[in-house]
Amino acid sequence: MAESVAPAQTLHKNPDQLLKTAPFIVCADDGPGISPANRTHIFDPFFTTHRAAGGTGMGLSIARAMVETHRGSLDLVDSVRGAAFLIDLPVGGTSPDKILDCS
Description:
This protein is an alpha+beta fold. 24% of the residues lie in helices and 15% in strands.
């Protein structure tokens, strides 16, 4: 939802880097957002506010690990409403030393 997300230049910690590292993806919703107390823990493995509903707390930590494997970043960014995440991916793919052998 573009109307609930701040302009792209304010989403990244360093706007100049945003121009160098495109492409990027912003994923946002218009829900209640993430409380200030939980913002520092949302990428911690097993952290969840929905354990009773079956939440494992692994989704964001796995997503961040996958993006970082490809030399990118996944960050929670400020938004006017709801939660917003910036996925920043480097141009040129993954370096050979970061490729995982899943065999």
